[in-house]
Sequence to fold (160 residues):
Amino acid sequence: MFGLLKGMAVTIRQLPKKKVTLMYPEQEISYPERFRGVHRFIPELCTVCNQCARICPTDCISLSGSRDEKRKLRIETYDINYDICILCNLCTEVCPTEAILMSDKFELASYNRDDFYLDMHWLYHNELEYERLHPDRAIPQTENQKEYERKRSEKPASEA
Ligand code: SF4
Ligand code: SF4
Fold:
C-alpha cells in the first residue's frame, strides 16, 4: 500500500510539469545541427577523388566522373545505398571540399528496397531543401562554390 501511494505521489508531482514528449509526426521536431541523417550532396564541389567511397565501411557509395574540356574531373553519377549505409559520417569527414554532408532528414521508410538507392539528383535536391529549411545553418551553394573556386585558384598549378 505504501509503495502504491509513493508511486502515485511521483505521478502527481509530474502532472503540472512541462511535457517533454511531442505528438510526432504531426508535430515537427527540430534536430541539432550535428544530427546524422541522410546525406546532401553538392555536385559542383565534388572533385571525384573517391575518398568517401574508399573510407565507407559498408561500401555503399558508388560514383563515376569524367574530365571536361578544361581537363577538370566532374562527377557524373553518385549513388548511396541506404539499405546498408550506417550513417557513420566517415564519408563527410574525409571529403576535402564538403561536397557530401549530412542532413537532418531520416524518414526513408518504404516497402520497396529499390527506393533506398538514392542518386546524385535526390541528394542535391536534399541540399537545396536543407538550405531552405535552415538558412541560418547551411552555407548557400553559391558561397560554397565561391569558396571552392578560391581554394582551387590558390593551389599551385602542379596540384590543380
Ligand atoms: S555515412 Fe558511413 S556508411 Fe554511410 S555512406 Fe558515409 S561512410 Fe558509408
Ligand atoms: S564527395 Fe568528396 S570525397 Fe567523395 S568523391 Fe566527391 S570530393 Fe571526393
